[in-house]
Write a structure and sequence with these properties.
Layout lengths: L2 H14 L5 H11 L3 H23 L4 H18 L11 H29 L4 E5 L5 E4 L5 E4 L4 E5 L7 E6 L1 E5 L8 E5 L2 E5 L3 E8 L3 E8 L2 E5 L7 E3 L4 E5 L4 E5 L8 H4 L1 E8 H12 L2 E4 L8 E7 L3 H12 L2 E5 L2 E5 L5
Parallel strand pairs: 5-7, 16-19
Antiparallel strand pairs: 1-4, 2-3, 3-6, 4-5, 6-9, 7-8, 8-11, 9-10, 10-13, 11-12, 13-14, 15-17, 18-19
Helix pairs in contact: 1-2, 1-3, 1-5, 3-5
């Protein structure tokens, strides 16, 4: 379950229990209008909530009546001078009731704990982690974020004050909603990337321990947190690499062609080397693909892929260059002969 889904499930719980604010109800309504799947999820959550409430109501105990029964047993035991056991006679029906009530209480307690730390605390942050695949998420200001597998972004439930700050670990594409009164700031270790509204890419795990920033459109200013006055202003199409240890900055107007291939899975190769193709395909699907015969890397091919599965792509490579692809665990091994 990703963090965005968890957030809206908690929001639904607040709505069902009558604790949601007007802003939260509006946010939930907008989310439900996005697609049919959200409405179906809402219906299922409502069924669960109603079932738990019904179970708790059915099993509600009249404490006053029970206390009178206990007092009667105590009085009787004092008169007869014997011990009294208050354990109910265990039957299959009683066991079922106990288990059902315990499960219902556990669910409500779990929801309560989550709500306490995610919804009720004004200083709480939301962390979205793309564990197994590329993940799309929307921030409170409407900005759209695409996270590559293994990456994460942390942001507040609401952007308060005069700026919007998020923290990135890994690789992401940002489509930031324009708001001149609230600059959008991405923290990537000691590096800060500040924008008003633009589209850009950041990789905090670039080769050599560097942080790579590529501006697609708009304008951004990048700087280290200890020296905000020394800003590097980027232009569209420009790539800048920052070295956190040495504080060196390298800028170029040329960047890797397929830096967003993990998001688009769109590749078009013209007389490209096989080793380069395999590297790009590996990036696109976040899978380790090894060329077992390095000499085959100089083979060239012309081919295009558009959103195909990894299995389909590997089959095309096999048939095009007479390669043999085998799988060993999570790794794919590509074997072939050298080309002249």
């Amino acid at each position: 379950m990703n963090a965005e889904n968890t957030y809206y499930e908690l929001l639904m719980s607040r709505y069902f229990s009558g604790e949601a604010s007007g802003d939260e109800i509006s946010e939930l309504s907008a989310w439900l209008d996005e697609n049919l799947e959200h409405k179906e999820q809402f219906t299922e959550q409502k069924k669960i909530f109603d079932a738990v409430n019904e179970e708790m109501i059915e099993q509600q105990v009249d404490l006053d009546a029970e206390w009178e029964v206990i007092r009667g047993k105590i009085s009787s035991s004092e008169e007869k001078g014997r011990k009294v056991s208050f354990a109910p006679k265990e039957t299959k029906q009683n066991r079922n009731i106990i288990w059902r009530v315990a499960a219902a209480v556990t669910v409500l307690l779990a929801i309560g704990v989550l709500l306490r730390f995610v919804v009720f605390r004004p200083d709480s942050d939301i962390k979205v982690v793309a564990s197994n695949d590329v993940m799309e998420t929307r921030l409170p200001d409407g900005s759209q974020i695409s996270l590559n597998q293994g990456s994460s972004i942390t942001y507040p439930k609401e952007f308060a004050g005069n700026k919007r700050e998020v923290e990135l670990e890994g690789e992401a594409h940002f489509q930031v909603t324009h708001d001149a009164s609230k600059p959008f700031i991405v923290s990537a270790g000691d590096l800060r990337v500040e924008v008003l509204g633009t589209s850009f890419y950041i990789n905090t795990h670039a080769p050599g321990g560097k942080v790579q920033v590529i501006l697609i459109e708009g304008s951004v200013a990048a700087y280290y947190k200890d020296s905000p006055e020394e800003k590097t202003i980027m232009k569209p199409g420009e790539q800048v690499e920052f070295s956190p240890q040495t504080k060196e900055i390298a800028s170029t107007n040329q960047h890797e062609q397929y830096f967003m291939v993990w998001k688009t899975r769109s590749m078009k190769f013209e007389n490209e080397r096989l080793d380069r193709v395999i590297y790009t395909v590996s990036r696109a699907y976040n899978k380790k693909i090894t060329l077992t015969n390095p000499a085959a890397g100089n083979c060239r091919l012309t081919v295009a892929f558009e959103g195909q599965t990894l299995e389909s792509v590997l089959k095309v490579l096999e048939s095009t260059l007479d390669l043999k692809v085998t799988q060993r665990g999570d790794e794919f091994l590509v074997d072939g002969k050298a080309c002249e």
